[in-house]
Amino acid sequence: QVQLVESGGGLVQAGGSLRLSCAASGRTFSGYAMGWFRQAPGKEREFVAAINWSGGSTFYADSVKGRFTISRDNAWNTVYLQMNSLKPEDTAVYYCAADKTGWGSMNLERYDYWGQGTQVTVSS
User: Fold this and answer.
1) What is the pLDDT of residue 30?
2) Hey, which residues does 70 pair with through a beta bridge?
3) Which DSSP letter does residue 86 get?
4) Which of 36, 56, 67, 112 could form a cystine bridge with 48, CB 3.0-4.6 A?
5) Where are the beta strands (DSSP E) in the chain?
6) Percentage of the chain exceeding pLDDT 70
7) CA 44 to CA 32: how far, in whole Å?
């Protein structure tokens, strides 16, 4: 069992930056791939970024490529999402998720554990 707790959300102006953190419990964190997803009001949850178990492989949604960076620190059981050049359309609840296969995916159904989410609001 893995429990995930996101933090770092908030209100920021367009063009600003935020760094989200996701702290995981459990001794097997380093074996999981981690992903970030987001859900805006009235929309489906969508993939943002993912990182494999070692941190050696990352992938991003086209909409955030070049602006967001996912990273992990297995010593601290934490995954991060650095978000730069934020746009109003980035406004959403952001969720982290854990995939026990270790490889990660853009498909949310591949993830086994989810956090409660953190709100990110970007004003224009």
Assistant:
1) 87
2) 81
3) -
4) 36
5) 4-7, 10-13, 18-24, 33-39, 46-51, 58-60, 68-73, 78-83, 92-99, 113-114, 118-123
6) 100
7) 24
Alpha carbon dihedral 85, 79, 42, 44, in 10-degree steps, equals 110
Residues in the chain: 124
- Range 11-15, long-range pairs (CB < 8 A, 24+ positions): 11/121, 11/122, 11/123, 12/86, 12/120, 12/121, 12/122, 12/123, 13/122, 13/123, 14/86, 14/87, 14/88, 14/122, 14/123, 14/124, 15/85, 15/86
**Residues of the chain above pLDDT 90, percent:** 94
pLDDT confidence of residue 1: 82
Q: Identify the pLDDT of residue 28.
A: 81
Q: Read off the pLDDT of residues 7-62 as tens digits, 9 standing for 90 and up.
A: 999 999 999 999 999 999 977 888 999 999 999 999 999 999 999 999 999 999 99
Q: Which of 112, 117, 109, 116 is nearest to 32 (CA)?
A: 112
CA 108 to chain centre: 12
